[in-house]
C-alpha cells in the first residue's frame, strides 16, 4: 500500500512537471501553429536562473525560506524574459516561413543547453533547496518527499490561474478565439501578435517555474534536463489536444502515473515505452486528443 | 469630397503560391447604399474581399476614407471602421454567442451597440450563453452580421451572407442588411440575384480575376444578355441546387422569395 501511495504521489509530481512545460507548449501551438522546440530550453533557463540565484549570486536570495522563494521568482522571471525575447527576435520575423521557424526553435533548443554547459559545465550541479522542502512526510504509511507536494501545488495553481485568465479576461478570450481562427481575430480589428507575445510569456513563465521546482524534484540541475522533459511534454500536448490547457493537465497526470507505475512494476525504462504505447492507443481511439476540442 | 468613393480599390492583384488569383481588380464602394460584388464561381470575389482586408498578400491600391491602406495590417485597417462577415461566417464555435460578440467590441471606440444588435436579432440575446458551434447556420450568420453592427463601422463587408441558408432566413438576413445599409454603406458579395435586385444600387462584376463590368445594379439585371454573359445565369453548369436553394439558376423561386420578403417587411 505504502509503495502504491508513494508511486502515485511521485507520478503526480512528475505529471505536474510535465504540465508546467506542456501548458505553454499547447497554447503556443494552438494559437500560433508554432512547434516550440525551444520550450525545454526555457525550462533549463528557469532551472539555472533559480540555481544561480539560490547559490548566493543574487543579493537576498538563498537556499532557505524567503530567499529561496526569491530565487524561484528570479528564475521564473529570467525564463519569462527569455521567452518574450525568443518570440520577438526569432519567431515573429518568421511567421510566413513555418519551416524556418521550426528550425530556429530547434536551434535555440540545442544552443541553450550547449551554452549552459559551456558556462557551468556539462555535469549535474547539486540544487540548493530549503531544508523544509527536502524532508518527507507520512501519508498512509508512505514516506513522501515534500517537494512532490510543492510541484503538485504549483501546477494546480498554474492550472487555476490559466483557466481564470482564459475564461475571465479579454486577453484570454482573444487567445481562445485565436486558437480557433487567427485570421478572423485580426479581421475583427484585434492585433493578434500581442496575444502571441503574451502566450509566449505565459508559457515561458510556466516552463521556467517548472525548471525551478524540477531542480527540487531531481535534487540537481543539468543542461539536458529541459530537453528530456520536452519529449514527454510533447506527448502530453498531443494526448491532451493541441491548445487545450485542461486536456494537457489530464494527460500530464496520466503520463506521470503510467510512467511511474510501469517503471516500478515492470523493468525500469519500460515506463517511457508505456507512455508511447498509451499515446498511440489514444490517438487511434480519439485522434484529436482527450478533450476532442480546442482550447 | 462627398462624391468620393468610401472604398476605392485600384489594380488589386493577389498571388497565392505562385498562382495569380487576381490580375487587376478595380472597385468602388459608394458612400451610401449597397454595392454588390458579383461574378461566377471562382471569379475572385472572396479573394478580392480578403485582399482588400489584407488577409492575403496583395499589391495595388486600397483607399479607405480617402487614405491609402494597402500597407496597413488587417487589424489596423479594420479598426478604421470596417465590419466583416466572411463567407464561412468566421464564428468561433468553441466560444459562446456573447463571447463572439464581445470579441468584436473595440475598446476605446465608443459604446458597443448591443441594443441595436439585440433588437435586430433577439435570438442572440436569448442564446447568449450557448456555444456558437451548436447554432444553426442562420443563427451563426446572425452572430457574424451582429458583430459587424456592434461598432458604428463606416463600411460593412458581407461575403455571401445568404449562402446555404433556408429561404425564411434569407429573408431575415435581407431585411437586416437593408436596414443596416440605410445607416452604413455595404459591400455585398452575392450569388443570389434576388438579393442583389432587392438591395443593391451599384454593382461590380468580376471575371477571371479582373473587373469586367461596373455600373448601376438595375441596369445590369435588366439586361438578360449581359447577365448571361457576365454571371452565367441561364447556364446551369456551375449551379449547386442543394447548397444554393435560391441561386441564380432559378430566378423564379428567388423572385418569389424576394416578393414574400417584401410582404413580410
Automatic annotation (TrEMBL), chain A:
Gene Ontology MF term list: transmembrane transporter activity
Family listed: Belongs to the binding-protein-dependent transport system permease family. LivHM subfamily.
Record-given protein name: Amino acid/amide ABC transporter membrane protein 1, HAAT family
Subcellular location: Cell membrane
Nucleotide-binding among keywords: no
Keywords, sorted A to Z: Amino-acid transport, Cell membrane, Membrane, Transmembrane, Transmembrane helix, Transport
Pfam family, one: BPD_transp_2
Transmembrane listed as a keyword: yes
PANTHER family (alphabetical): ABC TRANSPORTER ATP-BINDING PROTEIN, BRANCHED-CHAIN AMINO ACID TRANSPORT SYSTEM PERMEASE PROTEIN LIVH
GO term, biological process aspect, one: amino acid transport
Primary site of residence: membrane
Transmembrane parts of this sequence: 6-27, 34-54, 66-90, 102-121, 149-166, 195-218, 230-258, 264-285
Entry GO CC: plasma membrane
Membrane topology term: Multi-pass membrane protein
TrEMBL record, chain B:
Top-level taxon of origin: Bacteria
Keywords of the record: Amino-acid transport, ATP-binding, Nucleotide-binding, Transport
Cited SMART domains: AAA
Record-annotated ABC transporter domain positions: 7-233
Residue ranges with Low complexity bias: 252-265
CDD domains on file: ABC_TM1139_LivF_branched
Family listed: Belongs to the ABC transporter superfamily.
The protein's name: Amino acid/amide ABC transporter ATP-binding protein 2, HAAT family
Source organism of the structure: Actinacidiphila bryophytorum
Amino acid at each position: 500500500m505504502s509503495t502504491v501511495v508513494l508511486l502515485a504521489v511521485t507520478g503526480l509530481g512528475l505529471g505536474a512537471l510535465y504540465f508546467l512545460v506542456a501548458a505553454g507548449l499547447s497554447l503556443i501551438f494552438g494559437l500560433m501553429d508554432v512547434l516550440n522546440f525551444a520550450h525545454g530550453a526555457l525550462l533549463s533557463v528557469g532551472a539555472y536562473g533559480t540555481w544561480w540565484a539560490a547559490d548566493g549570486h543574487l543579493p537576498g536570495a538563498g537556499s532557505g525560506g524567503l530567499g529561496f522563494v526569491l530565487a524561484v521568482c528570479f528564475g521564473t522571471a529570467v525564463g519569462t524574459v527569455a521567452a518574450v525575447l525568443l518570440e520577438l527576435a526569432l519567431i515573429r520575423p518568421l511567421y510566413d516561413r513555418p519551416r524556418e521557424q521550426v528550425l530556429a526553435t530547434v536551434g535555440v533548443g540545442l544552443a541553450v543547453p550547449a551554452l549552459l554547459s559551456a558556462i557551468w559545465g556539462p555535469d549535474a550541479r547539486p540544487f540548493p533547496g530549503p531544508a523544509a522542502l527536502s524532508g518527507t512526510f507520512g501519508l498512509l504509511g508512505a514516506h513522501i518527499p515534500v517537494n512532490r507536494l510543492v510541484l503538485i501545488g504549483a501546477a494546480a495553481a498554474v492550472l487555476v490561474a490559466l483557466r481564470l485568465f482564459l475564461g475571465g479576461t479579454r486577453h484570454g478570450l482573444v487567445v481562445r478565439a485565436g486558437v480557433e481562427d487567427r485570421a478572423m481575430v485580426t479581421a475583427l480589428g484585434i492585433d493578434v501578435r500581442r496575444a502571441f507575445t503574451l502566450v509566449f510569456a505565459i508559457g515561458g513563465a510556466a516552463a521556467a517555474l517548472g525548471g525551478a521546482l524540477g531542480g527540487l524534484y531531481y535534487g540537481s540541475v543539468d543542461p539536458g534536463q529541459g530537453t528530456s522533459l520536452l519529449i514527454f511534454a510533447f506527448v502530453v500536448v498531443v494526448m491532451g489536444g493541441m491548445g487545450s490547457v485542461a486536456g494537457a493537465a489530464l494527460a500530464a497526470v496520466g503520463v506521470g502515473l503510467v510512467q511511474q507505475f510501469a517503471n516500478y512494476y515492470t523493468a525500469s525504462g519500460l515506463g517511457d515505452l508505456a507512455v508511447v504505447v498509451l499515446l498511440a492507443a489514444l490517438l487511434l481511439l480519439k485522434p484529436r486528443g482527450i478533450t476532442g476540442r480546442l482550447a | 469630397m462627398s462624391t468620393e468613393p468610401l472604398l476605392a480599390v485600384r489594380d488589386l492583384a493577389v498571388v497565392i503560391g505562385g498562382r495569380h488569383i487576381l490580375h487587376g481588380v478595380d472597385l468602388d464602394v459608394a458612400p451610401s447604399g449597397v454595392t454588390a460584388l458579383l461574378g461566377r464561381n471562382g471569379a475572385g470575389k472572396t479573394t478580392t474581399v480578403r485582399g482588400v482586408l489584407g488577409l492575403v498578400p496583395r499589391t495595388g491600391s486600397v483607399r479607405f476614407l480617402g487614405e491609402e491602406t494597402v500597407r496597413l495590417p488587417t487589424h489596423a485597417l479594420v479598426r478604421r471602421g470596417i465590419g466583416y462577415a466572411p463567407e464561412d461566417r468566421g464564428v468561433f464555435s468553441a466560444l459562446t454567442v456573447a463571447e463572439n460578440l464581445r470579441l468584436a467590441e473595440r475598446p476605446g471606440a465608443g459604446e458597443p451597440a448591443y441594443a441595436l444588435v439585440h433588437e435586430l436579432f433577439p435570438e442572440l440575446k436569448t442564446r447568449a450563453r450557448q456555444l456558437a458551434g451548436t447554432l444553426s447556420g442562420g443563427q451563426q450568420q446572425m452572430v457574424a452580421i451582429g458583430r459587424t453592427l456592434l461598432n458604428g463601422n463606416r463600411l460593412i463587408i458581407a461575403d455571401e451572407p445568404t449562402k446555404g441558408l433556408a429561404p425564411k432566413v434569407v429573408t431575415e438576413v435581407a431585411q437586416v442588411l437593408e436596414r443596416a445599409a440605410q445607416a452604413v454603406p455595404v459591400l455585398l458579395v452575392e450569388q443570389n440575384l434576388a438579393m442583389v435586385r432587392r438591395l443593391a444600387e451599384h454593382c461590380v462584376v468580376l471575371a477571371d480575376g479582373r473587373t469586367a463590368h461596373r455600373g448601376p445594379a438595375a441596369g445590369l439585371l435588366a439586361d438578360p444578355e449581359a447577365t448571361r454573359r457576365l454571371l452565367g445565369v441561364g447556364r446551369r453548369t456551375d449551379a449547386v441546387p442543394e447548397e444554393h436553394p435560391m441561386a441564380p439558376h432559378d430566378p423564379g423561386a428567388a423572385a418569389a422569395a424576394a416578393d414574400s420578403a417584401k410582404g413580410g417587411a
